[in-house]
Each structure stands twice: as C-alpha cells, then as structure tokens.
Amino acid sequence: MSQRWFDTDNGTRRPNARLHDDTLSDPHNAPGISRRGFLKLGVAVGTAASGALLLGFSVPAVSQDQKTGKTVIGGDANEAPQSGVFEPNAFIQIDTAGKVTLVMPKVEMGQGVYTSIPMLIAEELEVPLDAVTLDHAPPNEKLFKDPLLGGQLTGGSTSIRYAWEPMRRAGATARAMLINAAAAQWQVDPASCHAQAGQVIHAASNRTASYGQLVQAAATQTVPQNVPLKDPKDFKLIGTPAKRLDSPEKVDGTAMFGLDVRLPDMVYAAISTCPVFGGTLASVDDTHAKTIPGVRQIIKADNAVAVIGDHTWAAKRGLQALDIKWNEGAGAQVSMKTIVDDLAAASQRNGAVARKEGDVQRAFGDAKTRVDAVYQQPFLAHATMEPVNCTVHVRADACEVWLGSQVPTRVVDAAAAVTGLPADKIIVHNHLLGGGFGRRLEIDMVTQAVKVAKQLSTPVKVVWTREEDIQHDMYRPYYYDTISAGLDANGKPIAWQHRIAGSSILARFAPPAFQNGLDRDAVEVASDLPYDLPNQLVDYVRQEPRTIPTAFWRGVGPTRGTFVVESFVDELAAHAKIDPVQYRRSLLGKSPRALNVLNVAAQAGNWGSALPQGQGRGVSVMHAFGSFFAIVLDVAVEDGEVTVKRINCAVDCGMVVNPNTIEAQVQGGIIFGITAALYSEITIKDGRVQQNNFTDYRMLRINQTPPIDVHIVKSGEAPGGIGEPGTAALAPALTNAIYAATGKRLRQLPVGRQLHTA
C-alpha cells in the first residue's frame, strides 16, 4: 500500500511535494455560519495560579475541584468558583516550564486528529510537534461547538475543516504575544525578533528567551487583533508526514479507552435487552443466577435486565442463568418484507424537493431512451472493535461517567435526564474511542448504564457483549431509491429524476435541521452531483422502519447516495455503449477537480488495459465532505465469490495537514466499505435482529485485503474531510467492476447475497 502526490494541473507524480494554499476560505460551511464568524478574534488572556499563559476564546469556562482534580462542567467567567480554584477555559496553555497543552476539541477514534490538529497549533506557535501535549476537552457547547455540525461532536469528516483556521490563529496569536513580551523586555522592535523551536530570538543581539520564561510577561500583553497567518510556502509541519502521537501508548497498552477504566470498588454489569425493539420486561426468575459465585445483584429496567458481578465473567454467567420473559409488543410483527413493502409504497408518493432544475418531464418527452432502476441498501450495524461500554457512579450529589463518546455534551444531558441532577453535577471523563463510525454519536448506552448505576452505591462498568451490541445497535437506515434518466441521441442524460425513500436520522438527532419534510443528509450527493445535468428533480420521502432505530453510519448520505448515482451512471454508459470513464469525463466539464481525480485514478489504475477472463475493472467519482474522490478497482469473480484484486484512488481534499493520516484514513475507509459492500446487512424477523456476531456479520479478513494505492492530488483549496470518502465511494466501484467481469448489474447490497441469488 502506498501514497502518491499529484500536481493538480496535469496529474504528474511529484513525490514529497508540499501543497500550497492561496485561500483560507471554506465553501463547504454550513449555511449561514462562516468559519470567521465562529472564530472570536478577541482572545481571552489570563494567568493561572501556576503562572501559565492561557489562550482561548472569551466564553464560559469550567471549574476544577481542588481536592479531586476533576473537571466540573458549567460555570461562568464572572462566577465565584463553586468548589476549588476557578480557571478560565483555553485551547492553548503554556506553563513556566514551556510545556504547551492543547485542550482538544475533537475526540480521537482512530482518525488521527490527536496528531493533525496539534500540527496546526505547532506550525503557527513555532514549537516542535512533540512539544504539544493534549487534554480531552470537557463538555462545553459554547467553547467547543463545531459550527459545521452545530454542536460539540466529532463526525462528518469535519475535524480539520473545523480546526484549520481557528487553531492556527490561536497558535499565531500566542506566538505574537510571546514575541511582543520578549521585545518589550529587550526594548527592541518586535519586528526584529522571531520565534523558533519554543523560544524567541533577537538575532541582532544574539539574545534568546524560552517560552516558559516569557509566559508571565506575555500574559500582560495587549491581545493583537488579526495576527497574520503563515503563508503556506513557509509551512514547516503542515503538509509533511508526521508519525502519530498516540501510537506509542496504543502499542504499549497504556492508552485509555472506555473499556480500560478501572475504579476502586467497581462492579461489573452484563445486560440483556428485549430482543424485540419496543418490547418490555415481563418477568425474570433469578433463583439460579443468585447461586453463582461472584453474582451480587439482579437489576430490572423497563426493557432490560442487568446482572451485577464482582467481575465480568460472574456477571455473564449470572445473565445466562436468568429465566427472562418479555412483552414483545407490536414490534414482533415487523419483518424485512413489511419494511421493504413500506418503502416501496412510500416511493410512489411525491417527496420533499431537494433539487429541481429545468423541466424534467418535458426533457423525458424529448429523450430518445429512458432508463429506470430501483436500488436498495440494507440496514447496517457499526460493529466497532471496542464494544459499547459505559462506567457510571451515581451519588446523591453528583454523577460521574467514564466512556468514549463522540458527543460529550449529550452524555451530560442523558445522565442529567436519568438522575434528575443539574448538568453542572454531571462529570464526564471522555477517553479514546475504539471505533466510532457514528455509533458513539448516540447516548442510548449512557441512559441504560445510568439506570443501572442508580440502583447501586458503587461504580459499575456496563459492557455490552458483541451479540448485545450488534442486536441492539442503532442502524444505518434501509434505503429504497427509484431513479430514472432520459438520454439524447448521443447517450447523454438530458433528464434525471431521483427519489430517495428512507428513515430521517436528522428528524430525531437534530430536529431543527429537518425542515419541510427534507432530510439534507439523506439526499447528500444525490442532490449535489458533480455532473452537468440540465434537467433534474431529486426528492425525499420519509419512511421510518416501524420500530427499528436508525442512526448515522460513517457518512450516511454520501455513502448511500454515491452507490446509487455512480452505479446508475455506469448503467447509462452501458446503454450508450460508451466507456464508463469517458462517459463521466463528458459530464464533468463544469467540475475540474472531480475530472482531475478521475483522470489521476484512471491513469494509476491502468484504465483501458486488458484483464484476464473473469476479472473486471470499475470506477466511481464522488464530491462530498468538501473533498473530491475517485476509485478504480479490479475484481475477480469465481463461483459467486468476489476477490478485490487492486485499488487505486485519487483524493483532492484541499490543503493537506498530514499525508500519513490521509493515506491511513482512505485505506481504512475503503476496507470498511469493502466489508459492507460484500457482506454486511442486518435483517429483521419477528421484530428481532437475526445477526449476532462476526460469524454472521462478517468482516473482511486481512488476507482478503487488496493493495490500496492512495494518490493525493495537490490542491490550494481549503481542507476537506477525509474520514468517510473512502467508504462512501467504494461500493459502486466494486459493483461496477463486478458488472464488467460478469455482466450482472447489482442494484442491491450486499454483493455476496445478490451474486448467490442472481
């Protein structure tokens, strides 16, 4: 597996090239919210008791208990401390020893932000990357809100897009204040000084001062406004490969995930939830369970039973010994047939319009050929490597929660709702995440764990078994797409109509974002194609899958939208009898960045060269998450089994911070996408999830993983996202390659089942 750089202009390989940026604007901000609007240029500066320089945004802060050292959420810069010493919140802290601490506004779940965001700070602050240490940010919407997502959360491939300017500006402002402090002491012009490697230097007099020596004086400086950021040509760190700062701890086992939490007097809980969604607990006979050594207590909840043990094994054995009866309710009538029938019926209704251009019906009347298709995509579980877990200690006056979460402020809300405690009495200890993919955007595990902990006097760690995790996940929705195109005499689309029917995650997760019946996530990609289509109608029909809970799954909208669109474009190319890459090129005249990644991937993937019998080559192109992405993929198909032989992909994600992160994220996303496209589906029978572990929710094995070459295209645009594009663009390239190998057009996933039943 390798990584390559390409020049934007001609696709020429340029090893170790540095990307240059002439603009810091981000055209992909959420509507009505600008990156500059988010950044408050008036920076709050203060001195802590330790004499540290604290640099951050002038917003409410947190307090810290002097006895326990625990961060307490809430408080205001003008309030007296509730307990202990009040300290103003900050993104950057520099102490008298010169130690630089970044309060990390994003969580690390394998995507590399604990390296790439410190690179932004270190670049402008002029310190080595390994000089920056990290603290997890406490829950604080006002301070750590991501304007692209509307809250303090990590997801949507927004971390670098969010951090690109604010973090660099924070570092640049701190650097300027340190330089000004040194210049004042030396009575020289600040312009005659410069910062380097954590110190300020006055070359003319050969004087130096470390940052640690300057922090107290710097704290008295007037905060400069609009400090110029570095010209990209002067970058020393940004754009260069950097080793992951979190790797050593993950290798030696000292890294702390939620699953690693150990507390004095902690007990362990194994939990069983009603197997039918919407069902409740009827009765439980715990006679035998109580005889098992190590079992302490059996706790009943509305729809679940938990066994408390001295250790996990005792709790699991106790759970297996219970005789549980459930009230299954109406959910027991739900099956895949009822879900799909509901969606098919919904697709006959007019939906909320996501995009309308031209006169689609007239264009269909003028078309020489009409192509119609229905695409279906299954429910998907997240199946994170670290199973869902949550440790909670509920006391009369406070509740502490230990876990790995993408939404720390929602954790506070969930715990407060169950305990009845005010938010400022909820203490959250957020840890590294052993995979998120959207699963840890949810707080159902917090609610359940706090309900258990309320009935105990000691901390309790609730760990869901893999079976419980898969069968009580919140699933990527089942989608049902009807799509049609009218082609002119040359085979080009002159009419395009696309209807998406499926669950609305936004209506539940962020109700204000669900406007006029339209879920913008569900229609993403579908409503903003890179192709030149003169007459388009894209609409959305909300159809919830009765009792089945749905949630985000590693780029929901672009993942489902790209599969449909790029598969259908291939169908149109086949109808027109035009090479699939050439067909796309003819439609990308107004999207040069999309055209360029297509050309780079096609060149790298040897598009047009012959393949052996039984093998095929497929392509897909995508614009999403602020990035442009193309995949060329080779497969072999034998006796219904698909082997992915080779993958070349090209990515234009704008300015690159750490190319190593991009390569790793693309490769990981593609592997995740291969797994889902080939094998993954959650099916429902009698209201129950039929899959329960990796035996029937299959993962791609390491020996099945193909060579994946990542070609990074040089770009001067603002950074785009990279965590999800590889997953989102993979499936159609795979199914298009299968069509090239077999002549079978697959409009439903997963591929494995469709090939065996075709």
Briefly say what this structure is.
The protein has 758 residues and is of the alpha+beta class.
Topology, pairings included?
Layout: E1 2-6, H1 35-38, E2 43-47, E3 53-57, E4 62-64, E5 71-72, E6 85-87, E7 92-94, E8 100-104, H2 113-125, E9 132-136, H3 141-144, H4 159-186, E10 193-196, E11 199-202, E12 207-210, H5 211-218, H6 247-252, E13 267-273, E14 280-285, E15 295-300, E16 304-309, H7 312-320, E17 323-327, H8 336-346, E18 352-357, H9 360-366, E19 369-377, E20 389-394, E21 399-403, H10 408-419, E22 426-430, H11 444-453, E23 460-463, H12 466-471, E24 479-487, E25 493-502, H13 505-509, E26 536-542, H14 556-576, H15 580-587, H16 592-604, E27 615-624, E28 627-638, E29 641-652, H17 659-678, E30 684-685, E31 688-689, E32 708-713, H18 725-742, H19 751-757
Parallel strand pairs: 1-32, 8-9, 13-23, 21-22, 25-26, 29-32
Antiparallel strand pairs: 2-3, 3-7, 4-5, 4-6, 7-8, 10-11, 11-12, 13-16, 14-17, 15-16, 18-26, 19-24, 20-21, 20-23, 24-25, 27-28, 28-29, 30-31
Structure description:
This protein has 758 residues and is of the alpha+beta class. It folds into three domains: 21-238, 2-Layer Sandwich (Aldehyde Oxidoreductase, domain 4); 258-329 and 388-463, Aldehyde Oxidoreductase, domain 4 (2-Layer Sandwich); 336-380 and 475-757, Aldehyde oxidase/xanthine dehydrogenase, molybdopterin binding domain (Aldehyde Oxidoreductase, domain 4). The strands form eight sheets. The protein has a seven-stranded mixed sheet. The longest helix has 28 residues, at 159-186. The two termini are 33 Å apart.
